[in-house]
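Q: Mind making up any chain with structure tokens?
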Amino acid sequence: MKKLIIIFLAIAVLFTFYWYSGYRQHKNDDLPIQNGRDSSDLTEIEAMDNDVIGEGREQDVPDFSIDTKKDEKPPEDLAEEMAATGSASMPVEEVHDQLEEERNESSAQVKKSVLLDVPFISQAPKADWKDERQQDGCEEASVIMAIRWIKGGKLSKDEAEKKIIEISDWESENYGNFHDTSAKDTLERIIKGYFKYESARVS
């Protein structure tokens, strides 16, 4: 029985030794070859590198640089060219100033109301609606108010009624009627023709 145990242990030791030796050999065979060089070449290269470093020699380091396009110009030349050709955009400061100015203009206070001291009269100042000239005297009355506001002063009912009748009669005599004139006809006939304001215009 003892002999069998000793033989078994001897076989186990031999197997273990054989397996370990084969594993190391297989590991060395699998080492990669770099750039067509085997492990002995790599060892020589490492030795050479160590010698160079030990002697304090300077190694040549590749100079890496980014090549620019031949047609590309430096920023200074581009700025001068853009300024000369007018292709440069507006500077940021000018844009800011312009926007600030526009904002100030838009935020300017606007009066809620504007009061023009225009004397008011109706087309029939004394309510004589039987007179056809006063029934259709709205254009004449409007011009009379505007002219009096330009000249200044007040306007009485008697004066307004008299003026409306005079203008209507003048229109009938020169144009054949006084009914419902357009803005253009009112300008040409009454303002320019009757009152002689040649520079007046309708906007």
User: Anything to note?
Assistant: Residues 132-194 form one domain. The two ends are 134 Å apart (CA to CA). The longest helix spans residues 2-29. Residues 51-58 have pLDDT under 50 and may be disordered.
